[in-house]
């Protein structure tokens, strides 16, 4: 998943839950075992595992198992793809706002020179 | 909504749908009336209005009505708050990766000077 293009619908859906965002925040500080990750949450382990599975399916986190211990870590590239999508929409909007400001300035300058000619 | 802190669960949920992301992309190019927005979508107007309502409720877009015409526009500040949350998690992760690289470099330098002393 880490090298594929993330499915943005799945990534945004995964982040639309406070428990899953909290897991992402914790994993930002480094890899964690599932039991250490689950400890602070007042939640049955199967429910917690479902949240991990949503995050892993869309590539926001990855996990590996050594013996009986499963360790999770963040896949920053996936978050970065979702970030880039949002940044692109804002950039479009800002470019348009800049063009409008430039156009307003042009009208203003034309008004000034027209005023000078008429004096 | 534009001046409040966005509810990230609602914002990410709103963006977890390809139709709603397409609406956001179109509005990045400038405000649009509901009928112009709806035209390219092969969807009944009530379903389309539901998508707009999800986007408006969480502050990703705003709308105003003049006479019978409703116009929508993007609220870039809301997207920016969601972007900042993701950027923060990545920054945490990257800072940790940098600290690990620095630590590995320190061990390496210690190995080198130990090697020199032993020669």
From TrEMBL, chains A, B:
Ranges for domain HTH arsR-type: 1-94
CDD domains recorded: HTH_ARSR
Family annotation (InterPro entries): ArsR-like_HTH, HTH_ArsR_DNA-bd_dom, WH-like_DNA-bd_sf, WH_DNA-bd_sf
Matches recorded under Pfam families: HTH_20 (PF12840)
Domain of life: Bacteria
GO molecular function, a single term: DNA-binding transcription factor activity
Family annotation (NCBIfam families): HTH_metalloreg (NF033788)
Name of the featured protein: Transcriptional regulator
Species of the source: Piscinibacter terrae
